[in-house]
Every structure is written in structure tokens, then in C-alpha cells.
Amino acid sequence: MVWSDEQFAGWVAEQSGRVERRLHEAVQTPYSFVEEAARYLIDLGGKRFRPALVIAGCGLGLADERIDDEGMIRSGVIVELTHVASLYHDDVMDEATVRRGAPTAHRRWTNSVAIMVGDFLLAQASQIGAVLGEEFMVYQAQTLATLVQGQIAEMRGPGPGVDPITHHLDVINGKTAALIAASARYGGMFARLDSDQIEALTRYGQRLGMAFQLADDLLDIVGHDFGKQPGTDLREGVPTLAPLLIAQANRPEDARLLEFLAGPVSEDDIPEALALLRANPAIREVRAQIQQWSDDAAAQLDGFCDDAATRALRLLCDQAVVRTV
Asked: Distance (Å, rounded) from C-alpha 4 to C-alpha 70?
């Protein structure tokens, strides 16, 4: 059967619904408080981008009807549980107060509860993945180790003699791109693709992850309606690519902006800091880097046939770019 783009989108939505149901089943436990806390961020929603990527990757096996259906659903649940667990942990470390428009879990309960709930979700992910085989579990463990090291690298900052921009991109690769790469890889694995195709999908996911995180960071500067208040990173003193490029250039005309970027920006100064950032040529450079990562991701799909699944994967590359324009 040759699938149209509309039919494929409907199939992805159907499979995503199955993942969503299993995701909620995964946090059921006789301990009502644990379940309440574990469901907290899941019930707040989210893009569910990672499981959707697993499903879209699996779609490459639709034509030959070779998809491992259970592997697809289980791995979709696992990548989302891993992602949500990281949010519980990150919010504690970042001392964040709001997540998806609601108080963070550690603000609603305590730091200890949020950390333990994140651990519970990772344990549930391991249990769900145990039946998927050694190859899957080894790669998932390696991915989790990369996520943790990326978070530690962000906390520690660049060491002596390390370029801050290189360090920042390494952090994004660890904290964000690694799990998106794993999601694309699992799609290929459970579509039963050959090893070269699975590796190409993994590279695709890594580059797509880089593009999406850089785009998210840019939207915090140039966005107006994307799910959070612009300037969040400035308020928290979080370095992203555009400020790092501005600091590296160290132009005399950026003196006022550099004063703001030296630390967390006060609420009163946010409008001026955002205006100066939006007018800075560093914004164009960030957009160019997003475009390059997106193009590199799309190039990994050149060896695949032109079908609905491949077109959907290419569309994700385009979306990483156009949402920041």
C-alpha cells in the first residue's frame, strides 16, 4: 500500500494516542501520592515530540509491513518517560518555579519528592524496556548517561581554556539532542531497517535535536507566543547561543547589552535587553546555524525512498527553521 501524506499523518496520530494511554498506565501504582506526583507533568501535556519521532521513524517500515508494533509503542513511552523525568530533575537544579504554565513539582511538594518522582519514572522506563532486548537497553543506558553528563557539564560550565560556544553546543548535544537521536534510532530499529539506515536515522535525530534546541533558545528572545514568556533565559542568567556570540564578538556598540548579559537581567530591564538582542546581528548568525543543523539532518534522509514517512521526517527539519522566522 502506498500511503498518502494525509493517511500517514492519521496513522501517526492513532499510534500517538496509543502511546499516550500507555504513558498514563506506566505511572499507575498502589501508592496514590506517588501516582499523583508522577502524573503531574504528564497531565500538563507537552508536544510529545520524542514518541512522535519514534512513530514517524517506524513509518519507514509501513510499506513492507515489517514494523515491530509493540517495540514501537514501548519505546515511544520510554523516551517520553525519560524526557519527563529529566524535567523533574532539571526544575530542581534550575530552581524553576513554573513548568508548562503551572507550579513546578518541587514548588508544589519538595525538592526530594521531585527528585524521587524523576527516579521513579526512569525505573518505570527501564521496566518497560526490559523486554525489548539487550541492544535496546544498552543504547538507552548510554543515552541516559549522555543526558546526565550533559546536565553536569551545564552546571559546571566551560573549564579553563574551553571555548564557551563549543561547550554550549556540547551541552545541547548531551541534554537534548541525544534523546532525540535515540528516538529516531528506535523508530528505525522497530521498523526493522538495516544497520546503515538505523545509523542514518540516528544522525538525523541528533542534528534535528540540535536545530530544535537552538530554535527554542532563539524563540525565548524573538518569540511572542510559544508557550513561555520571552526573556526567561535572561531572567535566570542562562547563557544561550546568541548572548555567547555577542560576548565573543565584544563589540563597543554592544556595551549596554553586554552589561545586561553579565548576569541575570532584572524584570525592569527585560524589555530593553530583549530589544537590543533582537536588533543584534548575532540573531542572524543563530538562524544560520539552525538552518545548517536542519539541512544536515535532512541530508541524512537522502538514502531513503520518497514516501510519506520520509516526507514527514523532512517536514520536521523545515519546522525547526520556520518557527523562528
From this structure: 24
- 77-135 pLDDT, tens digit per residue, is 999 999 999 988 877 787 777 777 777 778 777 888 889 989 999 999 999 999 999 99
Nearest C-alpha neighbor of 164 from the set 244, 263, 277, 250: 244
pTM score, whole prediction: 0.94
How far from each other are the two terminal CA atoms of the chain, in whole angstroms? Answer: 37
Find the angle CA(128)-CA(130)-CA(132) to the nearest 5 degrees.
95
Residues in CB range of 278: below 8 A, 6 or more apart: 221, 222
Alpha carbon distance 47, 45 (integer Å) = 7
Q: Which residue ranges form the domains of the chain, and what is each CATH number?
A: 5-322 (1.10.600.10)
Q: Is 261 exposed, middle or buried (0-12, 13-18, 19+ CB in 10 A)?
A: buried
CA distances from 15 to 53, 54, 178, 198 (A): 11, 10, 23, 21
Look-up: residue for cell 507550579?
103
